[in-house]
Amino acid sequence: MTEFHEQDLAGAHFERVSLRGATFDHVRLNDATMQAVDFTGVRIRGALFGESRMRGVGLIDVEISGELRNVVVNGVDIAPLVEAELNRRMPERAKMAPDDSDGFREAWAILERLWDGTIARARTFPEVTLHRSVDDEWSFIQTLRHLNLVSAGWVDRMVLGNASPWHPLDLPWDEAPGWDDIPWDREAQPSLDEVLTVRRERQAMVRRVMESLTDEQLGTEVTRSEPGWPRMEDFPFKECLRIVLNEEWEHRLYAERDLTLLEKEN
C-alpha cells in the first residue's frame, strides 16, 4: 500500500488510477478537476464544497447531511425547500435562529426540555451501549462531551471571556486542527453521570447568559485573540449564541437517530 504523508502533490495528474478503499484525511482538493470518477460507496465527512460545480452527475440513493446554501440542482435552489420541509416536520426548529433576547430564551428552554427527554431515553439503555459508535459516528456519550466543548467555547470563552474554560472530558470535532491547551481524548470512557455533571454546569452557564440577555447585547461584537479556539475578531455576539443553539439542536437529532438504531440492534 502506497502512503503519502505531508506531501505536496499539487498539479498531479491521475488517469485510469484505482483509489478504491483509499483514505483521505485533512487533504486539500481545492480547484481539482474530476471527470468520469466513480464515487459509489464513498463516505465523506467534514467536507467543504464551496463554489463547486458538478455536471452530468448521477445522485442515486445518496444521503447528504449538512449546511445547504445556494445549492442549485437542475436549475432549482433546493436549500429553501429543504429548510421549509424541515421546519414543517419540526415546527420548533424555526425558533433556533432568533433575533431578539426573548427568542433566545425561548429557544434555550425548548432545547433543555427536548434534551431532558433524550437523556431519559438514553438512561433506558445499558451504559456500555451509550459508548457504542453507530455508523462510524460518535457514541451518545461522545456527543454530550462535544456539546460541552461547544458551550465552553462559544459562551464561556467568547461571550464571558474565560480564555481557557475546558474540562478534561471536552471533545473537539474529529476534523479539528488540534490545540495545545484543549483536551482531546476521543477514546476516554467516562460514565454518563460524569459527563452529565459537566453538562449541567455548562447548561446552567448558558441559561444564566440567556436570562440576563438584552437586545442591545445582541447587536454587539466580541473579540478573543488568545491562542486556542474560538479565536475571532469582531465576531457578532448573536452568532456565538446561535451556533450553540444550532449545535444543540442538530446533535440531539443525531443522538435520537442513533438511539433508534441501537434499539433495533438489541
Automatic annotation (TrEMBL):
Pfam families: DinB_2 (PF12867), Pentapeptide_3 (PF13576). Coiled coil: none annotated. InterPro entries: 5peptide_repeat (IPR001646), DinB-like (IPR024775), DinB/YfiT-like (IPR034660). Residues 111-254 form the DinB-like domain. Gene3D superfamilies: dinb family like domain, E3 ubiquitin-protein ligase SopA. This is DinB family protein. The lineage of its organism: Bacteria, Bacillati, Actinomycetota, Actinomycetes, Micromonosporales.
